[in-house]
Design brief:
six-stranded mixed beta sheet; 10 helices; single chain; 2 domains; globular; Nucleotidyltransferase, domain 5; alpha+beta; six-stranded antiparallel beta sheet; about 325 residues
Length: about 325
């Protein structure tokens, strides 16, 4: 398998509100680096795309990226560039990007032109920005690409904010992570442009410090929380049945929390985030992890505070 580290530059509408045909960003450049299993660069890809939807470059795109009208006029159309790119990727590969946006926008542009989907379910990829944080920081903070390049002492011999160069720098950061912290490469991310169609497509993954579940769609939040997989509280480490110590409660109608106790691994916290699908249905992203007693107390305080606020509102309304 190869690792395909890619970066996109895109244009958007200028001087008007809204966007054309559900496409807020039109891709104008694809840059990519192909890595082997040892994270060594074996090939590169770079193509300019002639814009069709937003032919005039947004002033910020021109300022940051540096592409001018002549560059774009000499570009190829998106479908032909995309076909060449996928052929270049090969039959077995893993996408890698800095952050989370580029894979969504790549698929959105493909959809606009009626191209075949990359997948019919959530697409796994490596978010190198997240891996950098897991490897060298706290796993939560998100740094700019240039910050990571500077911290790792990578030579900056090309300007940033061009797809080919940013893909190269991202690949070099990934190379450093692979050398120093190979364990973080197990932390896959999942792009949700395509949602699970049924139970078979649902995402169920276990990492070293937490587990993640991405559900199929439900009619509403109530139906989602009634689903056994969504509401179950089996230990995320050993899979054993647990005893709930804080039952499911909602913070704002979008996030739900629950805490249970595993006889072997202690307290298990579950967090459910309700997300809206394009058709108005909802789907669930559920994470579970082991927590300490202080964290349990903090969650219980949050629940008590919410109960007090709701009781006060009911009192005011009567």
């Amino acid at each position: 398998m190869h690792y395909i580290v890619f970066d996109l530059e895109w244009n958007q509408a200028e001087g008007r509100i809204g966007h054309e045909g559900g496409l807020p960003f039109e891709i104008v450049e694809i840059g990519a680096v192909k890595l082997n299993r040892k994270m060594q660069i074996v090939d590169r890809f770079d193509e300019i795309i002639k814009p069709k939807i937003y032919p005039r470059m947004h002033f910020m795109t021109t300022k940051i990226v540096g592409l001018d009208k002549e560059d774009l006029e000499n570009g190829k159309d998106f479908p032909s560039v995309m076909e060449s790119f996928l052929k270049w990727c090969g039959s077995k590969y893993r996408f890698c990007i800095w952050g989370t946006l580029d894979i969504t926008e790549l698929q959105r542009n493909m959809c606009y032109y009626g191209m075949d989907e990359l997948t019919h379910k959530p697409l796994p990829f490596l978010d190198v920005q997240k891996l950098y944080s897991l490897a060298y920081e706290d796993g939560k903070i998100r740094r700019a690409l240039e910050y990571a390049v500077d911290e790792l002492g990578i030579v900056k011999d090309e300007p940033f904010h061009r797809a080919n160069n940013d893909a190269y720098y991202t690949a070099r950061v990934l190379e450093n992570i692979h050398r120093d912290h190979t364990d973080v490469e197990d932390y896959l991310s999942f792009d949700l442009f395509m949602l699970p169609q049924d139970k078979r497509d649902e995402v169920k993954v276990k990492f070293k410090t937490y587990s993640k579940y991405i559900s199929r769609e439900f009619e509403d939040k109530t139906k989602a929380m009634q689903d056994k997989m969504v509401s179950s509280m089996k230990c995320c480490v050993c899979g054993r049945t647990t005893k709930k110590v804080i039952k499911w409660f909602s913070v704002n109608g979008r996030q739900y929390f629950c805490v249970a106790a595993c006889k072997k691994h202690g307290f298990v916290k579950a967090k459910v985030r309700m997300k809206k699908a394009d058709d108005g249905n909802v789907f669930v992203v559920k994470t579970m992890k082991i927590i300490d007693e202080a964290s349990v107390d903090a969650i219980r305080e949050k629940q008590d505070k919410l109960r007090a606020q709701r009781a006060e509102r009911r009192h005011r309304d009567t």
